[in-house]
Amino acid sequence: MSGINLISDTATLPTKGMLEAMFNAKVGDDVFSQDPTINRLQDFSAEMFGMEAGLFCPSGTMTNQIALAVHTGRLQEVICHEYSHIYQYETGGFAYNSGIGVKLLQGAKGKITVDQVAAAINPDYDWLAESSLVSLENTTNKGGGAYYTLEEIRPIGKLCKEKGLGFHLDGARIFNALVETGESPQDVGKEFDSISVCLSKGLGAPVGSVLLGSKDFIKKARRLRKAMGGGMRQAGYLAAACIYALENHIDRLKEDHARAKNLGKALQELDFVEGVHDVDTNIVIFDVKEPYDAARFLDTANKMGLIASPFGPRTIRFCTYLGINDEMIEDSINILKEINQNFLSLT
Ligand SMILES: *Cc1c(COP(=O)(O)O)cnc(C)c1O
């Protein structure tokens, strides 16, 4: 496939500066904790969020799955939105790795409220699964890039403490949220028992996520990472890219958001578009009208040089990221306008 790739912000390619940082990395065997660059990434990212310790993993799926496994056990369940990545897109790993169930909540744009969580915590009966963890996603992926503010997060954290539940953040795109709210990672870190952060999304590293938590939590997580086959050796070359991403690519996420908003605005004016969801960060979700459905629209767009992914029978997702510049957005809008002309002649 070639063309303008709006499929996902995982399509980022390392920049020249990032490749240089990787080339110059000092490395060692991380299974023996002897990779200085991985150690630096773990310390640096933990410090950023005011957490005690960090663990470098090959993917955000692994950081989330390890977090679930440390926080929970069999006959327990995690409370989360039905759109959650941990439920939708991790191959049912919650059941496979941890033997737990999920209590799924609904809510606009992939977000849940403290009242919903309070109502979802099971009372202590033998015949009910034990509620042991609440997991939030910020920003929401399937929810269209919406973000939580600390004001929304704090009461949920307080409730978890009162009820003795763990509180996990799937922060795959936490920095997309923070550049919008202006809140600090330290203040977010205070609220959660564990945080997963992806460096391989909009931040632009080729591979890698970090899991953050207390020293005791990370010690257990480290053992699980090995059991899952995630103990890597001289992976400091990858950690160097992640450090570079954290040092250089956070503020620029705002540019991705502005570009996504431009795309959303342009889509709103096109006849074949049924509706565009709110564009809060770098994700644009929209529905197409008959005779288009997602497959037919994507096929048409693909032939014209625009690649995206289906998000439902009539729903499409566009993602902006490092590597998608203003010119590509303009070209995309021109392609969409052309598709609109075709649509008008079809109908
Ligand atoms: C991408 C993503 C992850 C992790 O995905 P990997 O591809 O395994 O790194 C986790 N949560 C959310 C919300 C995501 O978008």
Please report the number of helical segments: 14
| SSE order, one letter for each helix or strand | EHHEHEHHEHEHEHHEEHHHEEHEEEH
Approximately how much helix is present in the residues? 40-55%
CATH superfamily name of the largest domain?
Type I PLP-dependent aspartate aminotransferase-like (Major domain)
CA gyration radius, whole angstroms: 21 Å
Overall mean confidence score, pLDDT: 97
Topology-level CATH name of the largest domain:
Aspartate Aminotransferase, domain 2
Bound molecules: pyridoxal-5'-phosphate
Low-confidence stretches: none
Question: If classified by CATH, what would the architecture of the largest domain be?
Answer: 3-Layer(aba) Sandwich
Biggest pleated-sheet summary: 7 strands, mixed
Which CATH C-level class of the largest domain is it?
Alpha Beta
N→C terminal distance:
29 Å
